[in-house]
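Researcher: We're teaching a course module on how sequence relates to structure. For the next exercise, students receive a sequence and then see the predicted structure as C-alpha coordinates, so they can try to spot secondary structure elements on their own. Here is the exercise chain.
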Amino acid sequence: MNKTVLDSLNTGLLDALAGDPRVLFMGEDILDPYGGAFKVSRGCSTRFPQQVLTTPISEGGLAGVAAGLALRGYRPVLEIMFGDFMTLLADQLVNHISKFRWMYNDSVELPLLIRTPMGGRRGYGPTHSQTLEKLYLGVPGLTIVAPNHFTLNENGEPGQLLQRLILESNSPVLFIENKLQYLFPLKTGQDLPDFKLRETFEVSDAAHLFPVRELTVRGAPAPVCTLTTYGYMSELCTQAMMILTYEHEIFCQLVIPTKLSPFDTTALFESVKVTGNLVIVEEGTKTLGWGAEVAALAAEALGSRLNQLNRVAARQTPVPAAPTLETSTLPQVADIVNAVRKQVG
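Model: And here is the predicted structure for the students to work with:
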Protein backbone atom coordinates (compact mmCIF):
# COMPACT_ATOMS: atom_id res chain seq x y z
CA MET A 1 0.00 0.00 0.00
CA ASN A 2 1.39 3.38 -0.99
CA LYS A 3 2.17 5.91 1.68
CA THR A 4 -0.37 8.74 1.72
CA VAL A 5 0.11 12.41 2.44
CA LEU A 6 -1.56 11.81 5.83
CA ASP A 7 0.89 9.00 6.63
CA SER A 8 3.81 11.22 5.69
CA LEU A 9 2.61 14.16 7.79
CA ASN A 10 1.96 11.88 10.77
CA THR A 11 5.48 10.44 10.52
CA GLY A 12 6.96 13.92 10.21
CA LEU A 13 5.13 15.12 13.30
CA LEU A 14 6.17 12.08 15.33
CA ASP A 15 9.80 12.43 14.21
CA ALA A 16 9.80 16.11 15.16
CA LEU A 17 8.50 15.30 18.65
CA ALA A 18 11.19 12.64 18.98
CA GLY A 19 13.88 14.93 17.63
CA ASP A 20 13.67 17.71 20.21
CA PRO A 21 12.01 17.71 23.66
CA ARG A 22 11.31 21.43 23.19
CA VAL A 23 8.71 20.57 20.52
CA LEU A 24 5.26 20.94 22.05
CA PHE A 25 2.19 19.93 20.05
CA MET A 26 -1.05 21.73 20.95
CA GLY A 27 -4.59 21.58 19.60
CA GLU A 28 -8.21 20.60 20.10
CA ASP A 29 -9.13 16.90 20.29
CA ILE A 30 -5.65 15.72 19.36
CA LEU A 31 -5.28 13.09 22.09
CA ASP A 32 -5.55 9.38 21.30
CA PRO A 33 -7.67 7.45 20.59
CA TYR A 34 -9.36 10.21 18.58
CA GLY A 35 -6.06 11.55 17.24
CA GLY A 36 -7.38 14.77 15.70
CA ALA A 37 -10.22 15.47 13.28
CA PHE A 38 -8.18 14.23 10.30
CA LYS A 39 -5.90 11.81 12.20
CA VAL A 40 -2.61 13.54 11.42
CA SER A 41 -1.87 13.56 15.15
CA ARG A 42 -2.69 9.89 15.75
CA GLY A 43 -0.21 8.23 18.10
CA CYS A 44 1.45 11.46 19.19
CA SER A 45 -0.05 11.66 22.69
CA THR A 46 0.58 7.95 23.29
CA ARG A 47 4.26 8.17 22.42
CA PHE A 48 4.94 11.67 23.78
CA PRO A 49 2.41 12.38 26.55
CA GLN A 50 4.54 15.16 28.08
CA GLN A 51 4.83 17.03 24.78
CA VAL A 52 1.22 16.85 23.54
CA LEU A 53 -1.29 19.25 25.08
CA THR A 54 -5.01 19.08 24.39
CA THR A 55 -6.58 22.52 24.63
CA PRO A 56 -9.85 24.38 25.09
CA ILE A 57 -11.72 25.78 22.07
CA SER A 58 -10.01 29.17 21.89
CA GLU A 59 -7.93 29.65 18.76
CA GLY A 60 -6.86 33.19 19.63
CA GLY A 61 -5.85 32.16 23.12
CA LEU A 62 -3.94 29.14 21.80
CA ALA A 63 -1.99 31.29 19.37
CA GLY A 64 -1.03 33.66 22.19
CA VAL A 65 0.12 30.81 24.42
CA ALA A 66 2.09 29.27 21.53
CA ALA A 67 3.77 32.60 20.83
CA GLY A 68 4.80 32.91 24.46
CA LEU A 69 6.22 29.39 24.48
CA ALA A 70 8.19 30.12 21.31
CA LEU A 71 9.65 33.29 22.85
CA ARG A 72 10.73 31.23 25.86
CA GLY A 73 12.71 28.76 23.76
CA TYR A 74 10.20 26.04 23.00
CA ARG A 75 9.26 24.98 19.47
CA PRO A 76 5.44 24.84 19.56
CA VAL A 77 3.30 23.28 16.86
CA LEU A 78 -0.32 24.42 16.86
CA GLU A 79 -3.05 22.51 15.05
CA ILE A 80 -6.10 24.51 14.00
CA MET A 81 -8.78 21.90 13.35
CA PHE A 82 -10.28 23.62 10.29
CA GLY A 83 -8.60 26.35 8.26
CA ASP A 84 -11.78 28.41 8.48
CA PHE A 85 -10.95 29.01 12.16
CA MET A 86 -7.73 30.81 11.22
CA THR A 87 -9.84 33.97 11.27
CA LEU A 88 -10.08 33.64 15.06
CA LEU A 89 -6.34 34.12 15.57
CA ALA A 90 -5.80 36.90 13.04
CA ASP A 91 -4.83 39.51 15.64
CA GLN A 92 -2.25 37.27 17.30
CA LEU A 93 -0.78 36.17 13.98
CA VAL A 94 -0.74 39.49 12.11
CA ASN A 95 -0.10 42.00 14.88
CA HIS A 96 2.11 39.99 17.22
CA ILE A 97 3.57 36.66 16.08
CA SER A 98 4.72 37.84 12.65
CA LYS A 99 6.17 41.10 14.01
CA PHE A 100 7.99 40.18 17.23
CA ARG A 101 11.42 39.67 15.63
CA TRP A 102 11.20 43.04 13.91
CA MET A 103 9.77 44.87 16.93
CA TYR A 104 12.59 43.60 19.16
CA ASN A 105 15.35 44.35 16.64
CA ASP A 106 15.93 40.70 15.80
CA SER A 107 16.95 39.94 19.37
CA VAL A 108 14.30 37.20 19.71
CA GLU A 109 13.35 34.14 17.68
CA LEU A 110 9.85 32.76 17.24
CA PRO A 111 9.96 29.11 16.07
CA LEU A 112 6.20 28.56 15.86
CA LEU A 113 4.47 26.39 13.25
CA ILE A 114 0.71 26.44 12.73
CA ARG A 115 -0.83 23.50 10.81
CA THR A 116 -4.33 23.64 9.38
CA PRO A 117 -6.40 21.91 6.67
CA MET A 118 -8.09 24.03 4.03
CA GLY A 119 -10.43 23.25 1.15
CA GLY A 120 -13.84 21.87 0.33
CA ARG A 121 -15.28 19.00 -1.72
CA ARG A 122 -16.44 17.10 1.37
CA GLY A 123 -19.85 18.68 1.87
CA TYR A 124 -18.91 20.46 5.09
CA GLY A 125 -20.66 23.68 4.11
CA PRO A 126 -19.74 27.37 4.09
CA THR A 127 -17.86 27.59 7.42
CA HIS A 128 -15.78 24.41 7.17
CA SER A 129 -14.83 24.28 3.47
CA GLN A 130 -13.05 27.52 2.70
CA THR A 131 -9.57 28.13 1.32
CA LEU A 132 -8.49 31.20 3.27
CA GLU A 133 -4.70 31.33 3.13
CA LYS A 134 -4.98 34.39 0.91
CA LEU A 135 -5.95 36.37 4.02
CA TYR A 136 -2.38 35.96 5.28
CA LEU A 137 -0.36 36.20 2.07
CA GLY A 138 2.00 39.13 2.11
CA VAL A 139 2.14 39.55 5.90
CA PRO A 140 5.79 40.50 6.59
CA GLY A 141 7.56 38.00 8.81
CA LEU A 142 5.17 35.11 8.10
CA THR A 143 6.07 32.19 5.82
CA ILE A 144 3.18 30.31 4.20
CA VAL A 145 3.80 26.81 2.90
CA ALA A 146 1.55 24.35 1.03
CA PRO A 147 3.01 20.86 0.43
CA ASN A 148 2.02 18.70 -2.51
CA HIS A 149 2.05 14.96 -3.12
CA PHE A 150 4.66 14.91 -5.90
CA THR A 151 8.20 14.07 -4.88
CA LEU A 152 11.40 12.64 -6.31
CA ASN A 153 12.46 10.99 -3.04
CA GLU A 154 11.61 10.78 0.65
CA ASN A 155 13.49 14.01 1.37
CA GLY A 156 10.78 15.84 -0.53
CA GLU A 157 7.80 14.30 1.25
CA PRO A 158 5.27 16.58 2.99
CA GLY A 159 6.17 14.99 6.33
CA GLN A 160 9.87 15.59 5.80
CA LEU A 161 9.14 19.25 5.08
CA LEU A 162 6.96 19.48 8.18
CA GLN A 163 9.64 17.89 10.37
CA ARG A 164 12.38 20.17 9.09
CA LEU A 165 10.31 23.32 9.53
CA ILE A 166 9.39 22.36 13.10
CA LEU A 167 12.99 21.61 14.05
CA GLU A 168 14.90 24.15 11.96
CA SER A 169 12.79 27.25 11.32
CA ASN A 170 13.22 30.12 13.78
CA SER A 171 10.39 32.21 12.35
CA PRO A 172 6.61 31.63 12.27
CA VAL A 173 5.26 29.33 9.57
CA LEU A 174 1.69 28.72 8.43
CA PHE A 175 1.54 25.17 7.05
CA ILE A 176 -1.45 24.69 4.74
CA GLU A 177 -2.74 21.16 4.23
CA ASN A 178 -5.76 20.02 2.19
CA LYS A 179 -8.55 17.75 3.34
CA LEU A 180 -8.77 15.75 0.11
CA GLN A 181 -5.03 15.55 -0.29
CA TYR A 182 -4.63 13.68 3.01
CA LEU A 183 -5.59 10.34 1.44
CA PHE A 184 -3.67 10.89 -1.79
CA PRO A 185 -0.75 8.49 -2.29
CA LEU A 186 2.62 10.14 -2.63
CA LYS A 187 3.67 10.13 -6.27
CA THR A 188 7.36 9.82 -7.00
CA GLY A 189 9.04 10.00 -10.37
CA GLN A 190 8.57 6.20 -10.67
CA ASP A 191 4.83 6.53 -9.98
CA LEU A 192 4.37 9.03 -12.80
CA PRO A 193 4.80 7.06 -16.03
CA ASP A 194 2.91 9.71 -18.01
CA PHE A 195 4.90 12.67 -16.69
CA LYS A 196 8.43 13.95 -16.46
CA LEU A 197 9.06 15.38 -12.98
CA ARG A 198 11.78 17.92 -12.30
CA GLU A 199 12.60 19.64 -9.03
CA THR A 200 14.31 22.98 -8.44
CA PHE A 201 14.69 25.27 -5.45
CA GLU A 202 14.29 28.96 -4.95
CA VAL A 203 17.40 31.02 -5.54
CA SER A 204 17.47 32.19 -1.90
CA ASP A 205 16.61 28.76 -0.46
CA ALA A 206 20.07 27.70 0.70
CA ALA A 207 18.64 24.99 2.97
CA HIS A 208 16.63 23.48 0.08
CA LEU A 209 13.45 23.43 2.12
CA PHE A 210 10.95 24.60 -0.48
CA PRO A 211 11.05 22.65 -3.74
CA VAL A 212 9.38 23.83 -6.92
CA ARG A 213 8.08 20.86 -8.94
CA GLU A 214 7.77 21.04 -12.72
CA LEU A 215 5.77 18.44 -14.64
CA THR A 216 5.44 17.92 -18.39
CA VAL A 217 3.79 15.07 -20.26
CA ARG A 218 6.42 12.47 -21.13
CA GLY A 219 7.30 12.44 -24.81
CA ALA A 220 5.10 15.43 -25.68
CA PRO A 221 6.26 18.33 -27.87
CA ALA A 222 7.43 21.56 -26.26
CA PRO A 223 4.77 23.12 -24.01
CA VAL A 224 2.79 26.09 -25.28
CA CYS A 225 1.17 27.00 -21.97
CA THR A 226 2.34 27.17 -18.36
CA LEU A 227 -0.01 26.06 -15.59
CA THR A 228 0.74 26.95 -11.99
CA THR A 229 -1.01 25.98 -8.79
CA TYR A 230 -0.29 24.50 -5.35
CA GLY A 231 -1.46 21.78 -2.97
CA TYR A 232 -4.37 19.58 -3.97
CA MET A 233 -5.14 21.54 -7.13
CA SER A 234 -1.92 20.19 -8.62
CA GLU A 235 -3.68 16.82 -9.01
CA LEU A 236 -6.55 18.38 -10.95
CA CYS A 237 -4.03 20.18 -13.14
CA THR A 238 -2.29 16.92 -14.06
CA GLN A 239 -5.65 15.42 -15.03
CA ALA A 240 -6.36 18.47 -17.16
CA MET A 241 -2.93 18.18 -18.80
CA MET A 242 -3.66 14.62 -19.91
CA ILE A 243 -6.97 15.67 -21.47
CA LEU A 244 -5.36 18.63 -23.20
CA THR A 245 -2.53 16.45 -24.52
CA TYR A 246 -4.47 13.47 -25.82
CA GLU A 247 -7.80 15.04 -26.79
CA HIS A 248 -6.77 18.53 -27.94
CA GLU A 249 -3.03 18.29 -28.69
CA ILE A 250 -2.30 21.25 -26.42
CA PHE A 251 0.87 20.72 -24.38
CA CYS A 252 1.47 22.32 -20.99
CA GLN A 253 4.06 22.56 -18.26
CA LEU A 254 2.86 22.56 -14.65
CA VAL A 255 4.86 24.55 -12.08
CA ILE A 256 4.01 23.78 -8.44
CA PRO A 257 5.58 25.98 -5.75
CA THR A 258 5.78 24.85 -2.14
CA LYS A 259 6.23 28.28 -0.57
CA LEU A 260 3.38 30.70 -1.29
CA SER A 261 4.66 33.67 0.69
CA PRO A 262 7.18 35.19 0.33
CA PHE A 263 6.83 34.03 -3.27
CA ASP A 264 9.82 33.41 -5.53
CA THR A 265 8.86 33.76 -9.19
CA THR A 266 12.10 32.48 -10.79
CA ALA A 267 11.05 28.98 -11.87
CA LEU A 268 7.57 30.05 -12.92
CA PHE A 269 8.72 32.97 -15.02
CA GLU A 270 11.41 30.89 -16.74
CA SER A 271 8.65 28.59 -17.92
CA VAL A 272 6.39 31.45 -19.07
CA LYS A 273 9.27 33.01 -21.03
CA VAL A 274 9.27 29.82 -23.11
CA THR A 275 5.51 29.25 -23.48
CA GLY A 276 4.29 32.85 -23.47
CA ASN A 277 1.01 31.76 -21.86
CA LEU A 278 0.04 31.40 -18.21
CA VAL A 279 -3.01 29.87 -16.50
CA ILE A 280 -3.12 30.22 -12.71
CA VAL A 281 -5.26 27.77 -10.73
CA GLU A 282 -6.35 27.97 -7.09
CA GLU A 283 -9.22 26.66 -4.96
CA GLY A 284 -9.82 29.93 -3.13
CA THR A 285 -12.12 32.62 -4.46
CA LYS A 286 -10.82 34.44 -7.50
CA THR A 287 -10.88 38.01 -6.25
CA LEU A 288 -7.72 39.41 -4.64
CA GLY A 289 -6.10 36.02 -4.09
CA TRP A 290 -2.83 34.22 -4.75
CA GLY A 291 -3.62 34.03 -8.44
CA ALA A 292 -4.26 37.75 -8.68
CA GLU A 293 -0.86 38.47 -7.11
CA VAL A 294 0.96 36.02 -9.38
CA ALA A 295 -0.79 37.54 -12.39
CA ALA A 296 0.27 41.03 -11.36
CA LEU A 297 3.87 39.95 -10.80
CA ALA A 298 3.93 38.23 -14.19
CA ALA A 299 2.54 41.26 -15.99
CA GLU A 300 5.08 43.54 -14.33
CA ALA A 301 8.09 41.30 -14.90
CA LEU A 302 7.45 39.72 -18.29
CA GLY A 303 5.87 42.53 -20.30
CA SER A 304 5.49 41.58 -23.96
CA ARG A 305 6.91 38.08 -23.33
CA LEU A 306 3.58 37.24 -21.68
CA ASN A 307 1.07 36.77 -24.47
CA GLN A 308 -1.98 35.93 -22.37
CA LEU A 309 -2.94 34.86 -18.89
CA ASN A 310 -6.07 33.45 -17.30
CA ARG A 311 -7.13 32.50 -13.79
CA VAL A 312 -9.20 29.53 -12.62
CA ALA A 313 -10.60 29.77 -9.10
CA ALA A 314 -13.71 29.34 -6.96
CA ARG A 315 -16.74 31.48 -7.57
CA GLN A 316 -17.19 34.56 -5.42
CA THR A 317 -19.69 32.92 -3.08
CA PRO A 318 -19.67 30.89 0.15
CA VAL A 319 -19.07 27.17 -0.38
CA PRO A 320 -22.42 25.31 -0.41
CA ALA A 321 -23.02 22.04 1.43
CA ALA A 322 -25.11 20.43 -1.33
CA PRO A 323 -22.75 18.33 -3.50
CA THR A 324 -23.97 19.58 -6.87
CA LEU A 325 -23.78 23.21 -5.78
CA GLU A 326 -20.37 22.71 -4.17
CA THR A 327 -19.09 21.19 -7.42
CA SER A 328 -20.36 24.14 -9.44
CA THR A 329 -18.73 26.59 -7.02
CA LEU A 330 -15.24 25.11 -6.78
CA PRO A 331 -12.86 24.81 -9.76
CA GLN A 332 -12.94 21.49 -11.60
CA VAL A 333 -10.75 19.74 -14.18
CA ALA A 334 -13.07 20.89 -16.98
CA ASP A 335 -12.61 24.51 -15.92
CA ILE A 336 -8.84 24.18 -16.28
CA VAL A 337 -9.16 22.49 -19.66
CA ASN A 338 -11.54 25.20 -20.91
CA ALA A 339 -9.29 28.01 -19.67
CA VAL A 340 -6.28 26.61 -21.52
CA ARG A 341 -8.26 25.91 -24.68
CA LYS A 342 -9.71 29.40 -24.65
CA GLN A 343 -6.24 30.85 -24.35
CA VAL A 344 -4.17 28.80 -26.78
CA GLY A 345 -6.56 26.40 -28.54
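Model: If you want an answer key for the exercise: The chain has a mean pLDDT of 95. The longest strand covers residues 277-285.
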